[in-house]
Every structure is written in structure tokens, then in C-alpha cells.
């Protein structure tokens, strides 16, 4: 079964450093997403991406965040200057359309120290 | 705005007993509904989903859920709990219109008592 692949599974970074989280969505999917889950809390939507542009973003997704699909296969989330409160599990997701095939990756646990 | 409410942040059941995890949604349009399970330090695993058609949906690991439009509910059940069912369960909804983000409930941690 096709999977959404996220790398790395765990990343530790120092406060103030830039971090890039990587995702490879399912190949024929058209819509791409990042979600975040702070430890012990619910999963929250960050951003959706379609046709090479952001289609929606949440209040969490401020100027420190950016997304990119640089080569037609990878989908990245960049945090420019990490803060302690950015520590969370970040999930990438993709779908082809409608609710069908809405698939989450296994997540990247980001720890900011 | 779409919202998902899970009643009970923690539910404890004895091994072999019925599991019932409650979920209600609010939506101006019939949503797509999901249940995800998350084991400690792991990602989200889809248990089941309702899109259209039959309102009783069967999922993996013996779980099922029933979409009740009149009650705006999508409760998750399993007839007989197993120790391996101990995990966090998230109910989620997708509005199905232009809004394509999934809205998650706060989660219910299921504890299985021996």
C-alpha cells in the first residue's frame, strides 16, 4: 500500500536554528498538508498546499514557517528560527481528492533544546 | 466552523469488555469522518472512515463506528477489549467542501484493565 514517507523520524535542534522537515507524499496525490501535535495534545492543522501554492494556513503557521515542493516529489516544512514551543510531532499528509486516500506519514518528532 | 468533540479524555475498560468511545461533530454539511489510533511515540494509524453509503463502518482490529446524522455522532465501538487496544484514539472530520483540512478531536486515551 502506498505510504507517505517522512524523514527524519526524530530531530533535535538548538533554539534559533533552522530546521527542514522532509516528506515524500504518495506519487499521484495532488494535495499536501502539514499538521502538528504538541506532546499530549490534539493534532492541529498547519498548512495545505495545492498546485504549487499554499491554499490555506492556520494561525500557527506564521512567518517563521514555510513550505516548498522543490522537485515534484518532496514536500518540505521549514522553520527558520526554532523556538522551544516548536517542539512537537509534525505530520505530513497527502490526498488525491475528496476524502479518499487522505494519508498521514508516521511523523517527525522535533525537539528544540 | 467544523468542530469535533470527544467525550472523556480517559476511558478505562476491563479486558474482554465492550469499548465505547464517543465522538460528536458539528458541521453545516455532512462530513467525512475518521477514527485514528496512536500508540505511544508513534504516528497516526487510520482505524476506519465514513465517506458515503453504509452508516455502519467496520475497521481494523475489530473496531467499528456508526454514523448517526440525527445525533451528529460517530461513536467507536469494539465488542471485546484486548490489552493491545490501549492507546490514544482520535476522532476527526473533513468537511467535504472547499475546506479540506481534517479537524481532530482532543483524543481519548483508552486504558485496558486486566
Kindly provide the radius of gyration of chain A, computed on alpha-carbon positions and rounded to a whole number of angstroms.
13 Å
* Low-pLDDT residue intervals, each spanning 5 or more residues of chain A: none
Q: How widely separated are the two ends of chain B?
A: 41 Å
Q: How much of the sequence of chain B is in beta strands? A: over 45%
CA radius of gyration of chain B: 14 Å
Distance from N terminus to C terminus of chain A (CA atoms, Å) equals: 36 Å
Mean pLDDT of chain B: 90
Instruction: Sum up the overall morphology of chain B in one term.
Output: globular
Q: How does the major sheet of chain B shape up? A: 6 strands, mixed
Query: Based on helices, strands and strand pairing, what is the structural class of chain A?
Result: mainly beta
> How is the biggest beta sheet of chain A arranged?
7 strands, mixed
Find the structural class of chain B using helix and strand composition. Answer: mainly beta
β-strand amount of chain A: over 45%
Most extensive interface, chain pair and sizes: A-B, 25 and 23 residues
Task: Please tag this protein with its features.
heterodimer, A: about 110 residues, mainly beta, 11 strands, about 50% strand, globular, B: about 110 residues, six-stranded mixed β-sheet, five-stranded antiparallel β-sheet, about 55% strand
Report on the structure:
Chain A is mostly beta strands and 113 residues long. Helices cover 0% and strands 50% of the residues of chain A. Chain A has strands at 5-7, 10-13, 19-24, 31-37, 43-50, 53-57, 65-68, 75-79, 88-95, 103-104, 108-112. With 114 residues, chain B is mainly β. In chain B, strands 2, 4, 5, 9, 10 and 11 form a six-stranded mixed sheet that branches. In chain B, strands 1-3-8-7-6 form a five-stranded antiparallel sheet, with no helix packed on it. In chain B, a hairpin with a 4-residue loop joins strand 7 (64-68) and strand 8 (73-78). The N and C termini of chain B lie far apart (41 Å). The A-B interface holds A 31, 33, 35, 41-45, 48, 55-56, 89, 91, 93, 95, 98-100, 102-107, 109 and B 32, 34, 36, 41-44, 46, 49, 51, 90, 92, 94, 96, 99-107.
Amino acid at each position: 500500500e502506498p505510504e507517505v514517507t517522512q524523514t527524519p523520524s526524530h530531530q533535535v535542534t538548538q533554539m534559533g536554528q533552522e530546521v527542514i522537515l522532509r516528506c515524500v507524499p504518495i506519487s499521484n496525490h495532488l494535495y499536501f498538508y502539514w499538521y502538528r501535535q504538541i506532546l499530549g495534545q490534539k493534532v492541529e492543522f498547519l498548512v495545505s498546499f495545492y498546485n504549487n501554492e499554499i491554499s490555506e494556513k492556520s494561525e500557527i503557521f506564521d512567518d517563521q514557517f514555510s513550505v516548498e515542493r522543490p522537485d515534484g516529489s518532496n514536500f518540505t516544512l521549514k522553520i527558520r528560527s526554532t523556538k522551544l514551543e516548536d517542539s512537537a510531532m509534525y505530520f505530513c499528509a497527502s490526498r488525491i481528492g475528496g476524502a479518499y486516500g487522505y494519508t498521514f506519514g508516521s511523523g517527525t518528532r522535533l525537539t528544540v533544546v | 466552523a467544523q468542530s469535533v468533540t470527544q467525550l472523556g479524555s480517559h476511558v478505562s475498560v476491563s479486558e474482554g469488555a465492550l469499548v465505547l468511545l464517543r465522538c460528536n461533530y458539528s458541521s453545516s454539511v455532512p462530513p467525512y469522518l475518521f477514527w485514528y489510533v496512536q500508540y505511544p511515540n508513534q504516528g497516526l494509524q487510520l482505524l476506519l472512515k465514513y465517506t458515503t453509503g453504509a452508516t455502519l463502518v467496520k475497521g481494523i482490529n475489530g473496531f467499528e463506528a456508526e454514523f448517526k446524522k440525527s445525533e451528529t455522532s460517530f461513536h467507536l465501538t469494539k465488542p471485546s477489549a484486548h490489552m493491545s487496544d490501549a492507546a490514544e484514539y482520535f476522532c476527526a472530520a473533513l468537511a467535504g467542501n472547499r475546506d479540506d483540512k481534517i479537524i481532530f478531536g482532543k483524543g481519548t486515551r483508552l486504558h485496558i484493565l486486566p
